[in-house]
Amino acid sequence: MAEQGNGEAFVAFERVQKSYDGETLVVKDLNLSMPKGEFLTMLGPSGSGKTTCLMMLAGFETATHGDILLDGVSINNIPPHKRGIGMVFQNYALFPHMTVAENLAFPLEVRKIGKAEREKKVRHALDMVQMGEFGNRRPAQLSGGQQQRIALARALVFEPELVLMDEPLGALDKQLREHMQFEITNLAHDLGITVVYVTHDQTEALTMSDRVAVFNDGRIQQLAAPDELYERPQNSFVAQFIGENNTLEGTIQDIADGRCTVRLDGGELIDANPINVTKPGERTRVSIRPERVEINKDRLGEGAHTLKAKVLEFVYMGDIFRTRLRVAGKDDFVIKTRNAPDQVRLKPGQDIEIGWMPEDCRALDAH
Amino acid sequence: MSDATSNANTIDAPTPEKGIAAAEAKNNPVLAADGTPLKKSLRRALRAQKLRALMLIAPLLIFVLVTFIAPILDMLFRSIENQIVSDTLPRTTSQLSEWDPATDELPPEAVYEAFYYDLFAAVEARQHTRLGQRLNYENTGVSSLFRGSGRDLDDFREDQVEYIEDFSPEWEDAGYWLSLMSGEGGEDFLDTRRDAILALIRESKRSPLGDLWCATIATCATAPEDIDIGYTPSAEVIDLLPRTSEAYADFALITVLEEEDSIAEEEPWEAVYVALAQDLAETPESELAAFSGPQAQALVDLKAGLADVEAQSFRDLFAQSDDDWVTPSPWRTIQTYAPAYTTGYFLNAADMQKTPDGPEFRPENERIYGLLLQRTMFLSLTITFSCILLGYPIAYLLSNLPMRTANLLMILVLLPFWTSLLVRTSAWKVMLQQQGVINDVLVWLGLVGDGSRLVMINNQFGTIVAMTHILLPFMILPMYSVMSTIPPSYVRAAKSLGATNWTTFWRVYFPQSVPGIGAGSILVFILSIGYYITPEIVGGTTGTFISNRIAYHISSSLNWGLAAALGSILLVVVLALYWAYDRIVGIDNVKLGG
User: Fold this and answer.
1) Superfamily of domain A246-364
2) A240 vs chain B: nearest CA distance in angstroms?
3) Residue pLDDT, tens place only, B491-529
4) CATH superfamily name and code, A11-236
5) If both were cysteines, with which of A138, A319, B434, B484 could B399 make a disulfide (CB 3.0 to 4.6 Å apart)?
6) From the record, what ranges are coiled-coil (chain B) (predicted)?
């Protein structure tokens, strides 16, 4: 799953476990290493352990077992204020009794940096987030987006090499959030800082990160680049969690040479690409992305597989059409077709034939 | 990134342009759909709502007004009210107004004469001791002076009185007197005298509202101004014998209104005889002879007979009763406190007194209220600071514990609230006294010798300890409610930015908890500045507050005016502190929660 810590790793989790009550593990055997300058996102549903991991890295929680290494040194016993890690909080945590400039000067002051130097750095940081004129405002006088920028500037002003962000865009509206995603990634790459970013928003994770670690049930389910994660999910949780997915349940009939045949519960036999199934007779969940399903037979290549389907619902969404079908006895099979000039608009009740390439059809575990 | 600049500036930054636009909107009122100004129709829409709200609070409002606000205002009013002197001694105070108290001269005989008649009526109405007590606050000894001379008044000009009584048996007959004084045309005179006597016996006339009440709803006793005296003064007699008429009218009114007797059966006061003798001596025989009543000849004969009876001056008579009457001191006091409203109580509360030369401080050893006020402030401040020191860590702990544990601890904090105040205070008495628990333990441990047990009660220490304990919840609760609203992410943010635990606390956590400290401090300080029961029990002599003195004046010395003045000063001090706090810290920053 995740590679073991090596000499080049800037941040590394080695066999980390965490339990709050001594009975259940919130984080189970976490191994993770990331090189300098990487933008890594921890993605997962709430309660999956991603925030706990971030808090352990920041030093606000201690690992029950295992080591957390920063630049090759174990930081388990280093208090948070000595770790030199910048952090952006979900609710920004700007000190309400200080002005914006005072907020930014705070980390420099506690580092005993001289006044002139301090002012220069504060100015620079404010300019960096285009908030140069807001130094004398109080946080309460700023909008959510502006507070966000200030929180970012404050986490960066003391030039940390590692910055942690805990769902920093959660409180912003969609448009502003998309804008800020873009800004944060640009800033991170320009400054060459390493970022660990926690979110439960998969779009955010896919658009911003170099790599994404999908968390569930205290474990990393898959750690991969966004395209890899989307196109080649390693298990059914990741497949379900990232993007929209059609699943058909069945049993492995035959498996050999990177190909398998699956007998669906509806009786149909299809070819699939086995991912984490190993032997015939095993239950499996076959996953196909809606946009990989083709309704035009002519466009299917050699070796494609076809199935009969009945149109149940057709939704016009502007750029795409979303059509719900009954396939192999299941009513929730969705396909997405591009709104191209020659595209067919299906009608409910219509009987059609759909098809896909066997390599896009991934046979995953049935959990 | 280039487009971010404009984006950041337009998010919600208030600009001058917006302000100008808003101001313009004010000059041209926005209109509702039907053309009326929007503000007006909004007001109309809200009126029913406001009326409903008012109706909902009306019962409580009326209850509070009647049972709380009105009595307090009445009590505070007593601090300047001083009608008692002019009500009890109306003739004396008007005569005295021409006397110059700065000289060492005694007041003229006219003052003594007026005082005789005033005091006589006051003695008969049993009001002179009250006045004596009132004046005694200002000039010690006046009370016994009034009481002593009140007893002697009956014997003033005894010879004249006896002469008239012996002159002919008619003069001892109530009916004879009544027929002499009665006649026509003296109704106004009687009404004037009735007002004076009603003021003396502290009865008030019935108000128009009372009239309405009695006429429509209830059956009331006859109003004092309507009671029939059974006597109409004769206008002719009033001209002929003015002093006698006045004294007789006073006698008649007090006999009927206060004693509830009939004047047809009561022999007049000695003062009426003295007045008759005085009038006869001053009235020419010819006028007496011209009197239309059947008693004309009797009066002429009486005048002739009284000419041989010696009449001592009133001044000498008072001097015989008590030497102090021939010193200026009591007269100065009466004159100084003659006005209906006085600053005397307030001066007294500020350790000052009135003198003919204006207010001045009392001698050093008689100043107690300034000291008491200082001590009250000092002790209250000490208690407030002790509460902050003890309460802050508790509140911090409470707000940072998990809910379950915090609730349990909160019960411990609130436990004192559920115990009687008296029990808690008495418990401290048991703990702190010299034979008490703490001393016993210290002696047992050998830290303190048995002979040198610590004195921890009946002094300031006892008051501070007991009151800190009692008021602590009032500090902890506002602190807790403010601290529990400080998100833990602030502390985490500070630490992640490199601040040590101490810096985090001092620069980030503490400033945000200050509103809680402010709210708690105001609460504790204002509560403690007026605290009574605990200092009374554990304070001894050095640990009592000004409120204990107020209570003393209310219940023991009965000097309600001074108590009201001290209370007013306390109220003003509290309001001033509150105002100062509002100016410095801002009352908006005081949070009791949320």
Assistant:
1) Nucleic acid-binding proteins (2.40.50.140)
2) 32
3) 999 999 999 999 999 999 999 998 889 889 988 998 999
4) P-loop containing nucleotide triphosphate hydrolases (3.40.50.300)
5) B484
6) none
Q: What angle, 0 to 180 degrees and rounded to 10, lies between the N-to-C axes of helices B460-483 and B403-414?
A: 150
Phi, psi of B427 (to 5 degrees): -60, -40
Q: Tell me the two tokens of residue B46.
A: 């809200």
pLDDT, tens only, B346-389: 888 888 887 777 788 888 888 889 888 899 999 999 999 999 99
Alpha helices (runs of H) in B125-269, residue ranges in sequence order: 128-136, 142-152, 158-167, 174-181, 187-200, 208-216, 235-240, 242-253
Would you give the distance in Å from CA B258 to the centre of its chain? Answer: 27
How many CB atoms sit inside 10 A of residue A6's CB? 10
Which letter does DSSP use for residue A135 in this model?
T
User: How many other CB atoms are there within 10 angstroms of residue B417's CB atom?
Assistant: 12
CA distances from B463 to A167, A252, B378, B460 (A): 54, 86, 12, 5
Asked if A11-236 and A246-364 have one fold, the answer is no
Are A131 and A153 spatial neighbours (Cβ–Cβ below 8 Å)? yes
With left for phi above 0 and alpha for psi between -120 and 50, is residue B358 left, alpha or beta? left
Nearest chain A Cα distance for residue B392, angstroms: 20
Cβ contact B233:B186 at 8 Å: yes
Which residue matches tokens 């209109």? B31
Q: Hey, where are the domains in chain A?
A: 11-236, 246-364
* Stretch 103-142 of chain A: residues touching chain B, C-beta under 8 Å: 106-107, 110-111, 130-131, 142
In chain B, the residue whose alpha carbon lies closest to the alpha carbon of A151 is B493
Question: Position of tokens 């970022």?
Answer: A195
Q: Does A91 touch chain B (CB under 8 A)?
A: yes
Q: Which domains does chain B have, with CATH numbers?
A: 84-154+314-342 (no CATH), 158-209+219-306 (no CATH), 370-589 (1.10.3720.10)
